[in-house]
Specification:
Layout lengths: L1 E9 L9 E10 L12 E6 L8 H6 L1 H12 L15 E4 L2 E6 L5 E2 L2 E5 H12 L8 E3 L3 H8 L2 H4 L9 H4 L3 H4 L6 H8 L10 H17 L2
Parallel strand pairs: 1-8, 3-5
Antiparallel strand pairs: 1-2, 2-3, 4-5, 6-7
Helix pairs in contact: 8-9
Length: about 220
């Protein structure tokens, strides 16, 4: 099974009033349980905005990311696709790709019903050899949070059923009334000293680590 581990960073919790800052996607082939997560194909999409709107706690959490966004905006690095076939992924090495786009709701000039984000994710899936029609998404709270900040056409690339490590790895004796968060799960199954990074790629890779731990019975 091909699973795409997904995480997003945003300016707050409400998709109606807050913005997508960054989305990351990590491909896991469940037949391969030994390749380190850092060596698996990944895509990071940074979304620049003319005006950033959101909640104070989210801005304080993402100061470094926002500083980087400001740098890219000053360099006028936002992508402008232009013509068919112009979507080019920037290879960061080791199967890791990164793109910067101007705004989350921007559409492809040659396919107005598809967002630029969707175009890049589709291109990435083809580039890394994920030929399944609709791979399975995975993420901590993907269905109730992350997916709400992705364009509908991007969500449509994936199956409607998602893997959530919080539900899959719950310890009924320890967790009581609340499903465990990402940091709790990583400390329990991967690294006792783990601290959640609040970066989309780092958190998507953490989901991949937990998925593989689940498969391997760790």
């Amino acid at each position: 099974m091909k699973i795409i581990c997904i995480d997003v960073e945003t300016t707050g919790l409400d998709p109606k009033t807050c913005q997508l800052l960054q989305a990351a996607f990590v491909l896991v082939d469940t037949k391969d349980t030994t390749t380190p997560v850092a060596e698996r194909p990944s895509l990071v999409v940074d979304v620049l905005h003319d005006l950033y709107v959101g909640e104070p706690y989210a801005f304080s959490m993402h100061t470094e990311l926002l500083r980087q966004h400001d740098k890219w905006k000053r360099e006028k690095a936002g992508a402008r696709p232009g013509t068919p076939g112009a979507l080019t992924l920037q290879d960061a090495g080791a199967g890791a790709y990164h793109v910067i786009i101007g705004k989350a709701d921007e559409t492809l000039p040659w396919y107005p019903n598809e967002s630029v984000i969707t175009g890049y994710v589709r291109t990435w899936l083809t580039t890394v050899g994920c030929t399944e029609r609709r791979p399975t998404p995975a993420g901590k709270n993907y269905g109730t949070f992350d997916a709400q900040f992705l364009p509908e056409s991007t969500r449509g690339l994936f199956r409607h059923r998602a893997y959530d490590p919080g539900s899959a790895l719950v310890d009924w004796a320890q967790d009581g009334e609340v499903l465990p968060d990402l940091q709790t799960l990583m400390r329990r199954h991967i690294d006792p000293a783990y601290v959640v990074k609040h970066g989309a790629l780092e958190d998507a890779r953490a989901v991949a680590d937990l998925l593989l731990a689940h498969i391997n019975g760790v």
